[in-house]
Amino acid sequence: MALASFAPWLIKNMILFTNPVYPFFFDAPRWDVYRQAWYTRPGSGLLSTAPLRLLLLPWDATVCSQEGAAGFASPFGDALLLCDPNGKGSLGATIGPLFLILIPLLAIGWHALRQPERRFVKRAALFLIVPCAVWVYSVATSVLLEQTRLLLQIFPVLAVIAALGLESLREMAVAGIRLGFVIHGAVVFVLAISLLGGVLFTVGLNSVSVLVGARSPQDYLRDQLGWHYAALEEVNQLPDGAGVMFLWEPRSFYCRAGIDCWPDALLDHWYHDMRVSEGDIDAIAARWQAEGSRTCYSGTWA
Fold first, then answer.
1. How far is CA 131 from the centre of its chain?
2. I want to staple 87 with a disulfide (CB 3.0 to 4.6 A). Which of 63, 64, 72, 257 is the partner?
3. What residues does each domain of the chain span?
């Protein structure tokens, strides 16, 4: 079943790139050892830089990580227990603590689950082994893969397991206190805070002013995207047929039709060509011109 779901992806990669697992493991069109090294950054992961933090991955990925933060860097500095305020990496994600709190409750309330629920948890655990193992290995080997969002595909399964952990304690009481009632209250509180944060974030974007016509979309984009949108407005002044090579900038959505923009998806245009051309600047310029680029746009995306 799993192999069947991957078959179209494998066939597509084989036809387009002559590599069924593109871009991994083998050279392919526009992919070589230089790009592979840049993409994977072997030896830069936690196993080399902070091996003990591999034991704290569940804590780092839920409590410590924040959308837009670097790796598992804590937005609260030293205020949160065991969080690393100097963590480095790529984009994190705000997941919250509910997975970490609710899933372990299954160990306490397992006997309260019905047989079909227990079967689901066992099958889900088998399903989760491979993606979680791959992610832990990735975090251990490469700093670029310290991203909780890479586990997005398993969040629905984790949510169901967490809900079962919560449900398993519904009738359990300790010293006359119903645990289910207390934990349900904590969950409601966390969800309310999350909802409030989402509302405040949306209000702060001030997108309603565009929707009601009080502000032009261009003004809004200049405020939200800053120098990036301003630079693309200049790029869009070029004549039709112009080619623009982006350096250190992966975003090209607002390039107008008629201009061929080449975004720097892996931020490696300069790195790769410097190594292929052995540092020969003239050779790099000639190569880009031969490929159709008439100008370059250098971003400072981070």
1. 15
2. 72
3. 46-205, 218-298
